[in-house]
């Protein structure tokens, strides 16, 4: 299959839906809505929404039914980036080559835009206009909220922050950071797509294995890119992890072993998809792409 | 009825439930969970949860069924206070006589504790352990998320922030701030209690009128207290609104007219409850109490 074309098409659909779901930048308070939109449309690759759509398709569901949840997931991802970039956190001036939210809108509005995007996600997930079985939708809300909360993404962010600059970070801590900070939302994306698509218990478990494997592979690949990529390719400073004294897979287990581990995880992900037919081709292609990408 | 005793009993029940629902302070990351608990148990009056319980009782529902939603509401209220107090926002060092979250845990953890409390609310609202009709529960999630989002509380906070220090704030703007920043959550609390209690359409509308009236009365009373209360009674600096150049009802329409308006709103709230029997006594007593309280 042509993954590039698939990703392009899905990204467009996601962007159109986000455009529709987000309050207009002209709606008051316009600074807030402008700030929310600024970061949502700052060139994200829509990895999580695409995974949700692809997981839904893999079990034979209609991608239309998951679009609101897919957009909700992208809003949560975006809020986490806005808050991560704040002066009190990573203090980043640029993200994907553009000034970060607080550099453009100020710190207070950036904090509130993040808060509002997180909240907007749950507005979308519980919205009346959507179809779908109410019990399944509650399950999706639970899945996403747990993944985003103190036992998921936020917990991972706290441990990441507390580990920065320390030289005694071990593999268990690094693994906690990755499975929580980035892995949790990827897992919730795939599982939510599966739930909304009507997955069987067997399919749900297989997709969970797939998600956990690619979530970690994705993060290891990110760590490798930070060592090997160029600043131009990444849209942020290459080598920034090292400069910050961040624990990474290459730092803890070496570059070659990290590459081998990422490759192994891709294979685990592909094996998990063995029970699926051709409708899982996009998920297969995404797994292989993760370790080949340049940014 | 003995409102003081009623409030005391309900507060205890809410506190016990919050204790049960929040992750333990010893659970990792303990800085995060400690920070979340610090602000949740910092002496809040549990106004919103009590209103939700009382509204549910007024329509004949069981208060047990709304306890998770009531606690979710208190978590959202608490997150909003943590973020409001941040240096980039109101930059407050004290809240209810105690150091603010970021003074104790640092700015980064305070931001993340707020994020996690907001998310925890939706974990609770969508949790499996709860009973209740799934469609009604989705409606409650929608109600609460809309009230907390950019068209509700966060929107009100942005306009409040942008109005600070300006001397041309008119009644329309002040009204927008109050109905959004504090009114929205009070309305959602009452309406969510009504939904979970199985309110009829007529009861739901009456309770909405009640909520809107007491929400505004509550805010006007707050403005009046800031002028008339003592620092000791308030647990924060008296006269702080004026010192900050904040628009208030007393500043815009005078102290006596503000008191008359608050009294009028209490009467509107009581009139809205005319269709209810004795089970609405707590709601009636709360309405009258709002303009009499000293803190």
UniProtKB/TrEMBL annotation, chains A, B:
Keywords: Isoprene biosynthesis, Magnesium, Metal-binding, Transferase. GO terms for biological process: terpenoid biosynthetic process. InterPro entries: Isoprenoid_synthase_dom_sf, Polyprenyl_synt, Polyprenyl_synt_CS, Prenyl_diphosphate_synthase. One of its GO terms (cellular component) is cytoplasm. Its cofactor is Mg(2+). Coiled coil: none annotated. One of its GO terms (molecular function) is prenyltransferase activity. Belongs to the FPP/GGPP synthase family. NCBIfam families: FPPsyn. This is Polyprenyl synthetase family protein. It comes from Geomonas terrae. The lineage of its organism: Bacteria, Pseudomonadati, Thermodesulfobacteriota, Desulfuromonadia, Geobacterales.
């Amino acid at each position: 299959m042509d993954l590039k074309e698939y990703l392009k098409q899905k990204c467009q659909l996601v962007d159109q839906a986000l455009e529709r779901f987000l309050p207009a930048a002209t709606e008051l308070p316009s600074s807030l809505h402008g700030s929310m939109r600024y970061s949502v449309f700052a060139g994200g690759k829509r990895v999580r929404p695409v995974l949700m759509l692809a997981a839904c398709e893999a079990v034979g569901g209609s991608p239309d039914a998951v679009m609101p949840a897919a957009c909700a997931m992208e809003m949560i991802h975006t809020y986490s980036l806005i808050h991560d970039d704040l002066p009190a956190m990573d203090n980043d001036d640029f993200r994907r080559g553009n000034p970060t939210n607080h550099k453009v809108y100020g710190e207070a509005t950036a904090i509130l835009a993040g808060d509002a995007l997180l909240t907007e996600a749950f507005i979308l997930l519980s919205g009346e206009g959507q179809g779908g079985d109410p019990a399944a939708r509650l399950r999706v809300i639970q899945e996403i909220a747990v993944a985003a909360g103190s036992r998921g993404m936020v917990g991972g962010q706290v441990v990441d922050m507390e580990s920065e600059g320390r030289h005694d970070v071990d593999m268990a801590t690094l693994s906690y950071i990755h499975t929580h900070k980035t892995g949790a939302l990827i897992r919730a994306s795939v599982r939510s797509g599966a739930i909304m698509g009507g997955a069987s218990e067997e399919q749900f478990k297989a997709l969970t294995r797939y998600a956990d494997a690619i979530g970690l592979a994705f993060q290891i690949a990110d760590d490798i890119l930070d060592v090997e990529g160029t600043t131009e390719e990444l849209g942020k400073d290459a080598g920034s992890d090292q400069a910050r004294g961040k624990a990474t897979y290459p730092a803890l287990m070496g570059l070659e072993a990290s590459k081998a581990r990422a490759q192994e995880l891709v294979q685990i992900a592909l094996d998990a998809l063995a029970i699926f037919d051709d409708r899982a081709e996009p998920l297969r292609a995404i797994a292989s792409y993760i370790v080949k990408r340049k940014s």
